[in-house]
Every structure is written in structure tokens, then in C-alpha cells.
ATP/GTP binding protein
Amino acid sequence: MTSLTLQDIEDIFEKLRGGAVPERGLDSYAVGIDRELAEIRRQLELVGRGGGYVKFLRGDYGCGKTFMARLAVLEAQNQGFATSFVVVSDNDLKFHRFDDVYRKVVSALGTAACPRGALSDILDRWIGKVEEGLIATDCDPDAADFDAKVAAKLAEELTSMIGNQAPAEFVRVIQKVFELKQAGELTEAAALLSWLSGSTNVAASAKKIADIRGEISSRDAMAYLRGIVGMVHAADYKGLVIVIDEAETILRMRRDSRGKSLNGIRQIYDDAGSYERLLWIFTGTPDFFDSRHGVAGLTPLYDRIGFSQEEGGFANVRQPQLALRPFGKERLRAVARALRDLYQPENPQRHKDEITDDFIDLLVDKVTEGFRGHVGLVPRHFIREFINKMDLVQQEPKYKPMAMKDRDYVPRELTPEEENALAHGGTVVTEFGDDDATPMPAEEVW
């Protein structure tokens, strides 16, 4: 389990109060997912040995897909991987354009030491490692040609890891950033790093320094990603883990954009083995995988990653799609007990006296009844309500949480997905971007 500071614990509860998934400490209240977490760890072990893979997390609304994906990121960072967590969005991320995906992935790079915006930190770590290696071979760090040797070694190491598969501009920018940093020209170095991150707002004067033109295109971005993965490994990380959350958003796109996005996923899957030390994790709903508007509408992709389940609900966790099981009442109780133990009360005795197992049982039943028995919709609201009760116990000396046994729980601040599910018997009915469910052709889009 991750070692948590008081600030970490405060951050966990602050995020949960707002209905969000925290970025740290998830393992402190992760219950009922031992099988799934073991499979993620197996994938990390394979990637750490030099493999390249893709895993899909499959689950209905409320199953904890984002939680599991965030937990995978935390696990990866704890094991020495760099990570990136990206959410597919109608407005902010067009998945059918890989330059857009690349920009989001690189800008969201994180490590255990640098949770966000870690590209510069990763490069500095690599440069430091190269410098130490040269000094260990009796190179004089004060010699006039030492920086030139470092720049040459950077290119040599990258080539040894990924061959000549990274664009020449990638290597040139890395070397130029190093030179600029050594010369104290940090603004220019930062501008080139922004360009390498996929920014389209870098001044022509900055690009001229490294003899580059234009921006990283959609068709070039996969090659640049290969360079990023090589740099991550050169900096002594085990590899890179990229999470693409809420892939079902693709279903709301028009058919042409949807087809390109799905073909992009097919290309990622087909090329995964050639991206050593890279693990992609996609999350999506059953409709994303099984409907003709989604993966099932692109036969080559569906044939590769289709989900199989035997009678009795038995599903192999090692197949491409890892099915997440919906919450039940007992799992909610276990989560509540874990959060109760993690909570830092000002009055521990009152916390112990009022937040009892009997109260947890009552709250689970009340919140579930408020959602008409659809326990799969409950987790986010239950956790918020449970934390609210613990807070009130500390703030109000006369407050008795068990008094709610005489009142009904009325859900508030429902998301569109929750309203959708309540209107359709507990199941979210997917809204498609259009009515065209004809099969999509396979094509190279990136």
C-alpha cells in the first residue's frame, strides 16, 4: 500500500467530496478488485521486460473504470514507470487526430517524483544519467568538448533503443534543448520542449534554432511517440503506461470521425508489439465494444479484441478486455469501512461511536433505495454521502447519523448518465452520434 502523508489523506477526501477520483492513495480503499489488479500487475511485468501491449477495461457506468485506470497509473508509478492519463472528450480531445492524442499524452506525462508535466524532468534525468556515465569513463566534465560528447551520447542511446524509428527532428530537438540549457537560454529550451510536446503555438524563431518547421502532424505523431518511449526508458524508467479513459465518447462522434478513431485504436493494437515498454490501457462501456457503432462495427478490430464469457459469467481476465464487475452492497460496505479507517477525525472517540458498522449498513440500504435498488449507480453518491456524515459527526456535537433511518435518501446532483440510467431501469442507454451503424472499413488513418 502507498505510504500516505496527512496532506495526501486530506486530498483524497477533498476529491471524493466533489465526486472525483483522487490521483493518490487509491489502494487505501480499493476492495474487491484483487483479480483485476493482479492482471494489471502482470501486464506491467510484461512491459517492464520489454514488451508492448494494449489492455481494455470493460464495464458499465458505476463499475469503477476510472478508479481502476487511476489505480493502474498509481501502481505503474510505484513500480518505476512513467505514465499519462488522458480522457477522451467531445471538445477537448479528438481521438481521430493522433497529433491531438500525442499532445495530450505528452502534456500529461507523470512520474512518482513529478505527477504532471514531467517531460522536462524526464529529459533532465536522462541527461544527468548520460553525464554520470561519461564521467565514469574518465571524461572530464570541465573539458571544452564534454557537452558535445553528451549530445552525441544522447543520440547514440536513443538510436540503440529504438533504431532509426524516431524522426531526425526528434533527436535534433533533444540535443538542441540540452545545448540551450547549458548556455542558460532556458526560455528557448522551454519553447522547443513545447514543440516536442505537440504545441502549435511555438514561435518560428524558436523552431529555427533547431532547424525545424511546422508542427508535429497526425501521421508523424506515432513516430514521435516512439521517441518519447525511448527517452523514458533511457531516463531509467521501466517504461510508459498510457491510459485513455472514457473511450465510449467516440460513440457520440459522426460516422467518419468514429471510423477514424476506431481505426486508430486498431493501428495502436496492431503496432503495439513494436513499441517496446509501452502499455496502453483503454476504458469503455459494453456498448463501446459490442455495438455496431463501436468496436463491433470495425470487424478487424472486433476480431482481435472481442470479449468472451462462458456460462455462469466466467471471463478470462487475460483476454484483451478485462471485465470489471459491478458494485454490490457488500463491496460498498467494505469501501466505507476502509474510508472510515483512513479518515482523520478531530474527535476519534465520537467518530468510533457514531460511524459504526450498523450505520454503514443503514446508509448502504438507504442510498440504494434512493436509486430504486440499482446498486450499480450508487458508489459515487454513497461515498459522498458517507463522507458528509463523517464530517457532520465531527462538526456538530449533537448530530446523530443513525437518525436517517426515519428518512428517505433523495439523490442530488445527478450526472446525465445517472439520469439516463434511472429513466431506463438502471442501464445507461447510449446516445450515438448518428444512426449509421453500417460496417466501417479498415484504413490507415495515422
Summary: The chain has 18 helices and six strands. The first helix runs from residue 6 to 17. The chain has a mean pLDDT of 94.
